[in-house]
Amino acid sequence: MNITIQSVHFDASVQLKEFIEKKLSKLDKFSDLIVDAEVILKVVKPEVANNKEASVKLNIKSGELFANKVADTFEEAILLNVEALEKQILKVKEKATAK
Fold first, then answer.
1. Is the distance from CB of 56 to CB of 77 less than 8 angstroms?
2. How far apart (Å, rounded) are the C-alpha atoms in residues 88 and 72?
3. By the number of CB atoms within 10 A of the CB, which of 22, 25, 37, 39 ranks highest?
């Protein structure tokens, strides 16, 4: 899966990028429909807790899936996004097999 990571108004560390790629690549085991992923990282209102926003858009063969979470750290936000996307992927697969 091709993963594009965009960090708005800051440079994401190599460790953060590797973490994101590792966690998102786990979604491949749920479905082979995933074409690529776009990740956008933003710091919302600095100096506040829960100010790291991560958006993940998965392009799949039948459309796209999207998750957007805010947490204390980007890692935590990515984990929440991966959880939400897993559920969405399973729903898409259920609909496909129900047809």
1. no
2. 24
3. 37
